[in-house]
Write a structure and sequence with these properties.
This protein has 774 residues and is α+β, with helices and mostly antiparallel strands. It contains 19 helices and 28 strands.
Amino acid sequence: MTIHPGNMKKFGIGQPVRRVEDHKFVTGAGSYTDDILTQRAAHAFILRSPHAHATFTITGASAAKAMKGVLAVFTAGDLGDMPGVACAAPMQKADGQLMEAPEWPLLCKGKVMHVGDAVAMIVADSLAVARDAAEAITIDYSPLPVVTTIADAIKPKAVTVWSKAAPGNIAYDQTLGSKEEADAAFAKAAHVVTLTVDNNRLITNYMETRACIGAYDAKDKRYTLTLGSQGVHGIQGAVAKIMGIGPEKLRVITPDVGGGFGTKSFNYREYPLVLFAAKALNRPVKWTQERTEHFLSCAHGRDNLTTAEMALDARGKFLAMRVHIMGNLGAYASQYGPYIPWLGATMATGPYDIKAMFVRCQGIYTHTVPIDAYRGAGRPEAAYVLERLVDLCARKLGLKPEAIRARNFVKPGSMPYKTQTKRTYDVGEFEGHMRSALEKADQTGFAARLRVSKKAGKLRGFGFASYIECTAWGSGEDVEVSLGSDGGVTVLIGTQSNGQGHMTAYAQAVSQALDIPPEQVTVVQGDTDRVKTGHGTGGSRSIPVGAVSAYRASEGLADKLKDLASEKLEAAVGDLVLAAGRVTVAGTDKGLTFSEVAALPKATPEMLAATSEFVPPDATYPNGTHVAEVEIDPATGVVSILDYTIVDDFGVTVNPLLLAGQVHGGVVQGLGQALLERTVFDSSGQLLTASFMDYAMPRADNMAPISFTTRNVPSTTNPLGIKGAGEAGSIGSCPAIMNAVVDALNRAYGITHIDMPATPERIWQAIAGTQTKS
């Protein structure tokens, strides 16, 4: 089903079609959850704990309840036996049993586990009144001991977060690979190289904070929840379970969404709470998150402490890897939180041919905001430690970074290649894109540029990383495509755009089969009443899975339109073609417009619609090489990115403009993690970086222009050859930038390691440390 160049349509797959949705957004016509004005809507405010670990008693709420405009003050006792937000992906403990995962309570009852835990919900006629009422509630807290970091949580006498569920704060302990084979390879290795890295905690900070509106129809005994999400059907199932109702009793609507990055995939306590309040008060209830609330109540990302060892022979061939991953789960096991470090572990060997490996993966509880999937979800963490380790191996053995990689890459002739983590790479030309990226980045001219920097008193570094990741696995996507009386086409699909450009990409898939401009295609997402099934957006699945389904459904509709038109045109179906919104007899101007076909007597709704569901047989494996060139001011520690080059393999490019946008955004998020974003909890569990005054976000002037090209090898597990692209930029960028930073520091000072974020302070201290030693 791969689209050949000779069969490319004007607005079809492969074309640089401009985003059809952008006019709405740039003119301010987008409609986000907080923009929705619901008649008689009350406003909710969540009163949150100022302590990371404490018992508490609410000693006074009567003053708040008596305030004018206050409709209700809800506490845990008002919720009855409503369950909390449950973990959907518990992992195994060392004894083989599933981990115990205490629920994230809707409202805490007598004990809080992190700063920002919810204690009460106040509902009032206005948000200002609700906030004032919250300040009138008196609570007696009795603070308890706190642990916030992995390193502290695993100490022998550490404070225990959940003494029964996780003794020693270890929620789960799983292994992957063969310890015996790995140990045997290490025993005979000529070289062993070890590296420990801290993959720093991140806070998503999408442009649009979370918001939700709950409503209840007493007549139909049915709820409606409106919210920004990454998929309404997953939210529907999770929230309905908490509410004790069937999914059909809950309609979930998602309007425009201002960014998700994984963090809007999950169910949060505020969603069932506004529904509960809406029913109790018999009026809609709206909650909109403030920015600091986002820092304190949305799942965070990353926060792994990982030690990796590589066994090598005398020539630098990789023999085996051993990896110990400890993932911070926070105070509660979030929806997919425990699974994320494990998902990264399955990509531990990256694009390299490593015959033996052993991974130990542990989830650790702390008194912090829970951790879950954030753009890349485990794969950036795996690529980061691996590519930092490979560079260190090259440095220890006196090899060039490209030489040690070329020596160890899985070769194209070895495909399909089964990894020691039981993944199967179908295709890949890893050395090809590495060599191409290094050439485009002018690696050979670096020495001259280094001399220029030295004359200016600056350090200069050249670093790169080659990665492979897994995308678009698991569930399929059921798509319906239908023709309207006006000749326009409507697509019903259960993914959810958060800014990626789904309206354009799906329109291109439709146009590939029906040959109509994207303006004539309407894509409907985000409504469980209109779209019956769906698995949402995540894991870079929307286009590799959804576009295939949309294309196949459009092909089915094309066949039906030919069947309808053949009688009227007095031509065999095989003689009909679709072009420019018409069904015509090939080689003639005789034909019918789509609207004329829709008006034919036999054009029943069934004949004007087609469905298809593509279920991926396996993941797709995008891969590529990122190259960064940096300059460092040794007097201040400030890092400047001077040049950034990418050569990626995404199989088949659906739209080069959309693809570049996705990659650029991911790279800048990686830049943020590598150089800027630092999440700091103090010893009492207070989040010290809970605003943009304290948490540094990447800006345009932090990034150099990006040179991005593709060197595609079509996927064999995807009918259109597509590989997922939404997360790749965040996977290759961190190790490339940090390898460049370490290269600069090593050339000047012999420094071989520095952790993210490589802030000016951290770099200055590393440089000062070498001068102190000397």
